Amino acid sequence: MKNFWKKIISLESKSISSGAIVIALFYILNGLLGLLRNGLLAYKFGASRILDIYWASFKIPDLIYVIFISGALSAGFIPFFSQKLKQSKEEAWKLANNILSTLTLIMTIAAFIVILLAPLLVSLIVPGFNIEEQNQVVNFLRIMMIQPIFLGISSILSGVLQTFRRFFITSLSPLFYNIGIIIGILFLTNFLGPIGLAYGVVLGSILHFLIILPALKSTGFHFHFLPNFKSENLKKLFSIAGPRTLSLISTQINFFVITIIASRLEKGSLAIFNFANDLQYLPQNVFAVSFAISAFPILSFLIDNKYEFNKIFIKTIKNILFFLIPISIFYFVFSNSLVGITLNYGNFDLSAKNAVSEILKIFSLGMIASSLLPLLIRVFFAQGDAYRPFFAGLSTNVINIILSLILAPRFGLKGLTTAFVLSSCFNLFILLVMIKKRKIIEENSVKKWRQLIQFILIIIAFSLLSGLVSYFYLYCFEKFISNFSFITMLIQLILGGIIFLAIYCFLSYFFIKDEFKEIIKDIPLVNKFLKNSNEKYS
Questions:
Q1: What is the C-alpha separation between 129 and 161, in angstroms, rounded?
Q2: pTM beyond 0.85, yes or no
Q3: Helix (H) and strand (E) counts in the chain
Q4: Residue 145's Cα: distance from chain center in Å?
Q5: Neighbours of 140 (CB within 10 A)
Q6: Residue 50: which of 142, 133, 141, 146 has the closest Cα?
C-alpha cells in the first residue's frame, strides 16, 4: 500500500495528451462531486436563508484568492518557474519560496483585516439581510478567511508540481476540497449547527493543501520562509499579473452585485441562483474552458502567423459550440429532470425545485455566449493584451448593474438572472468588436468566417430538431407516468439523453461528416481510444 501511494504521488504525465486526459477526467469527477455536494446541501437545508448566508460568505475569501493568487498563477508562474529551473534549481527553489512566503504573508494580513472589518463589509455585501442574519454571515466569514490562505499555498505548490508534469496529484486536490465540504455538511453540522458548513470549507482547503505535500518531496522542494517584497522576480510576476488580476476582479464584481441585489429578494434567492449557476457551469468547464486552455499556448505561439492563428481560433470556436449549443438546448428541455436528479431531496421542496428549474432555463439561453468568453479573453492574452478584456468586463458590469436594478425589482430572481445572461451576451459582443477593430483576425478570411457562421446555423438547427423530438418524448413520458421518484426521473433523463444524442450525432455525421470526425478526434479520451484501436487492429 505504501509503495502504491508512492507511485501515485510521483506519477508523471509523459505527453500533452496524457496530461490532458488526466485533467479532463478529474474535471468531470470534480464536477460530479460538486453536484453531490450541492445535492447534500439541498437535502439538509433546502433553498433557505442558511444557504444564502453560506454562499454570501464566500464572496470576500474568493476575492482575496483572486487578487493575490489567481492572477499571479494565470499570468505565468509556471513558465516563469520553468525558466528558472532550466537555469538553476537553486534559483528556482529560491523563487518558489520567495513567492510562496510573500503571498502567504500578504494573504494572512489581508485575512486579519477582513476579520476585523467583517461587520462593516458584510453590511455592504448583504444589505437586505436583517441584523441577526448579517451577524451569521460575519461568523461564517471570519472562519472561512482561513480558506484562501491554505488554497493559496496549495495553488502555488500545485504550480511547482505541474512544472514537473505531476498532473495526477494536482488534479486530485480539488476533489479533497469538495470532500472536506461534504464532511462539513454530513457530520460537522450535526454537532456545530449551520456554522459547521464554514468549518467544512476550511477542512476542504486544508485537505487540498495536505494531499499535495508528499508529492513535493520527490521534486526536491524544501520550504524556507523567505519573504522579500523587494525581489525583482516578484515585482516582474506582479507586473505581468496586474492586468489579468483586474480581469478576474471584474468577474468577481458581477457576483458581488448579484449577492447585494439577491439579499433584498425573498429568502433562498441566492441559494437558488447558485444551485442553477453551478449546474450550468459544469458543461462549460468540461468543454469550453478546457478547449480554451488547450488552445491558449498554441495561439500564443502563432501570434505572428495570422493564417494559422485564425485556423486554430475558428477550429476552437467550432469545437466549443459543437458541444455547448446542443447542451444548452438539452438543459432547456430537461431542466426539471436535471434539477430533480441533483437537488430534489429532503428539505428541498417542490417550489424550490421549480424555481431552480426556471432559473436554469434562463441560464441555458445564455450558455452559448458565456461558453465563448474564456476563449476570446485568451485571444487577447495571447496578444499580451489584458487591458481590453478588463475594460470589456468593466463595461459588462455596468450593464449588469443597470439591468439588474431595472429587472430585479419587477421580476425578482428571474430578472436578476436575465440581467446576468444579457450582460454575458454584451460582453461577447464587445470582445468580438474589439477583436475586429484590433485586426487580430486575418483580413482575408471572410470565407472562413462565413463557413463558421454556416456551421453554427447548422448546429443550431440540428440541436433544435433534437430538442423538439426530445420534448415530444418528454411530453409522452409525463403523460403516462405519474409517479416521479428518483429512479423514474433518472430513467427519463437517460432515455431523453440517448434520444437527443442519437439524433444530434446522426444528423452531424451525415450532413457535416468531416467536421464531425475532426471535432470528435480533438477530444483527448476519444483520440487516445482511436489511436489504441488503430494500433491494435492495424
A1: 43
A2: yes
A3: 25, 0
A4: 21
A5: 26
A6: 133
Is the separation of the CB atoms in 431 and 389 below 8 Å?
yes
Helix-helix angle 232-262:387-411, to 10 degrees: 10
Task: Tell me the C-alpha distance between 339 and 275, whole Å.
Answer: 9
Q: How far apart are CA 22 and CA 417, in angstroms?
A: 34
Task: Give the C-alpha separation, 401 to 385, whole Å.
Answer: 26
DSSP character at residue 67: I
Give CA–CA dist 408/332, Å, rounded: 22
Give the whole-angstrom CA distance, residue 517 versus residue 526. Answer: 11
Rg (CA), the chain: 24
CA distance 287 to 319: 8
Q: Which long-range contacts (CB under 8 A, 24 or more apart) does 22-28 make?
A: 22/167, 22/168, 22/171, 23/167, 23/171, 23/290, 24/286, 24/290, 24/524, 24/525, 25/171, 25/525, 26/171, 26/172, 26/174, 26/175, 27/171, 27/285, 27/286, 27/290, 28/286
Asked if 309 and 442 count as a contact pair (C-beta separation under 8 A), the reply is yes
377 and 412 Cβ atoms separated by less than 8 Å? no
What are the grid coordinates assigned to 216, written together? 513535493
**Nearest Cα residue to 283 out of 218, 204, 338, 349:** 338
Is residue 97 within 8 A of residue 220, CB to CB? The reply is: no
Task: Identify residue 7 by its one-letter amino acid code.
Answer: K
In single-letter form, the type of residue at position 261 comes to I
Which SS3 state, helix, strand or coil, does residue 128 take? coil
| Run means of pLDDT, 10 residues per run, the chain, 538 residues | 50 46 74 92 93 94 85 64 76 83 90 96 95 96 96 87 74 90 96 96 95 81 76 72 74 87 93 94 84 75 79 87 95 93 86 94 95 88 79 90 93 95 94 82 68 91 96 87 79 93 93 81 54 46
Angle at the Cα of 421 from the Cα atoms of 420 and 427, rounded to 5 degrees? 90
Planar angle of CA 375, 376, 379, nearest 5 degrees: 90
H helix runs in 46-88, sequence order? 49-56, 59-65, 71-87
Residue 437 CB partners (closer than 8 Å, separation 6+):
none
- Candidates 59, 141, 156, 162; CA nearest to 106 is 156
Q: How far is CA 249 from the centre of its chain?
A: 15
Cell 489579468 locates to 244
Tell me how long the chain is.
538
How many angstroms separate the CA atoms of 89 and 222, rounded?
12
